[in-house]
Amino acid sequence: MEINFVRIDDRLIHGQVASIWVKETRCNKIFVCSDEVAEDKLRKTLLLKVAPPGVKAYVLPIDKVLEVYKNPKYDSFKALILCVKPGDVLRLIEGGMVMKSVNLGGMCFKTGRTQISGAVSLGPEDIDALNKIHELGIELELRKIASDSKIDVMSKIKDL
């Protein structure tokens, strides 16, 4: 499986992803990678229905995504990886998934989180995971849509 794009967005598949990021990244598969979402039957069903035409979506737990990633049977897949939180991306990397860059697109504000942009708020566990990803040499960039200028995530969290 070829990883065309990795995005952290707690909305997962929505208008921006379906209409902009899928075209921009030239993917033919969308993988929602989350143990919690994969167990939520209603949410999983809804996400599978909103994938754009011609692009197959999967909602799978992290370990299953890693199995698919490592299986040569799926080498033709050009994947857009969607995760709810940085910790899930870190688990994918630690499980052997190779990626060059991670996009932060949307993480809603909750108590205990610090807002770093209009669309992204991070808790301490998110910052820890992002620091670990950064230490592995993986680019961390902040953009809502493809035409936005990339903002270095580390410049936003260095003082948190």
Automatic annotation (TrEMBL):
Lineage: Bacteria, Bacillati, Bacillota, Clostridia, Eubacteriales
GO molecular function: kinase activity; protein-N(PI)-phosphohistidine-sugar phosphotransferase activity
Pfam families given in the database record: PTSIIB_sorb
Record carries keyword Hydrolase: no
PROSITE patterns associated with the record: PTS_EIIB_TYPE_4 (PS51101)
SUPFAM superfamilies with a match to the protein in the record: PTS IIb component
Domain of life: Bacteria
Subcellular location(s) per record: Cytoplasm
Domain PTS EIIB type-4, first and last residues per copy: 1-160
Record-given protein name: PTS fructose transporter subunit IIB
CDD domains recorded: PTS_IIB_man (cd00001)
Main location: cytoplasm
Alphabetic keyword roster: Cytoplasm, Kinase, Phosphotransferase system, Sugar transport, Transferase, Transport
Gene Ontology cellular-component terms listed: cytoplasm
Originating species: Clostridium estertheticum
GO terms, biological process: phosphoenolpyruvate-dependent sugar phosphotransferase system
